[in-house]
Amino acid sequence: MIKVLGSGSPILDVLLKVDDAFLTSFVSGEKGGMNMIDTVEQERILNKAKAAGVCAKYAIGGSAFNTISALTHLGLATAFLGKTGKDADGEFFRKAYQEIGGDPSALKETVEAATANCLCLVTPDSQRTMRSNLGASTLINVNDICNGDFENVTHVHIEGYQLFFADVVKKVITLAKEKNCTVSFDMASFEVVRLFRKELAELLPLIDIIFANEDEAREFFAEGEFDPCAALEKLSAICPVAVVKVGSRGAWIREKDDTIHVDARMVKAVDTTGAGDLWQAGFLYGYLTGRGIEFAGCLGSAVSAEVVQVMGAELPQEAWERLKKEFGC
Prior knowledge:
- The chain is α/β, with parallel strands linked by helices and 329 residues long.
- The chain has a single domain, classed as Ribokinase (UDP-N-acetylmuramoyl-L-alanine:D-glutamate ligase, 3-Layer(aba) Sandwich).
- The protein is 39% helix and 23% strand.
- The strands form two sheets. A nine-stranded mixed sheet has the order 6-5-1-9-10-11-12-13-14, sandwiched between helices. A five-stranded mixed sheet has the order 3-8-7-2-4.
- It starts with a strand and ends with a helix.
- The model has no long low-confidence stretch (mean pLDDT 94).
């Protein structure tokens, strides 16, 4: 039986539709990436949004969790390793995950901080800019992680944001390898790659499947003129399976000497939140069930196309049913 364990920050997403002027006026940092902010700064942005008449939408999420949630909907057994606050938001997170069929037993909790949340600021071009307050999720440590978290697990998926807790990532990978699990890693954002290029270079030889988008790959290899195929070849020299996603131009995938390109499904996007996370879910489902990189990439593209048509990273049940019927999941 396939069982996938996700490792990352369980987060309550706060989705806000704003314009570019709002970002320029009230949000520090570059558009399109992810920065950490404190509670005071988060409240300031929320108050500015409220004053501008912006209504917030809430959803459980987090990068790796979005992937794990989607894999659960597609029919795989899943579990999630992370830490929430011992609070109402944390209980809501556990209950919602369990209700879709996930195993919450690896989720830790603490009374020392509140459950993490992330402001997802979505502009009219469907780009999302994330400003996170990771709260309780930052308190996870190597002592929280034990062999029991890997019970019946066959694959582990790690989000790049966990590099802020590099010792935790190293222990997760170490235990995964001891349990003969394969491991996938999502580079997460160009800002994360910029901050942790050295750590990432040290970890990549331990990774079986690496996911990057063009901004992340460009940042990792410090390239000016970016060539996705050249980046793919470099990544595949380190990891057995490499993926470089190039947005509306699809994705390049390489396993051993087999290189393919998968087209993106062209749809009207309203929000790119979770697009990469759900692309990875589709790919992992196809690959882990033995259907090969072309099927996996096509399913990834299809799932990603569905999620950009809704606000947030949660698909309605009818979308999952439609996808499962199309791909025989």
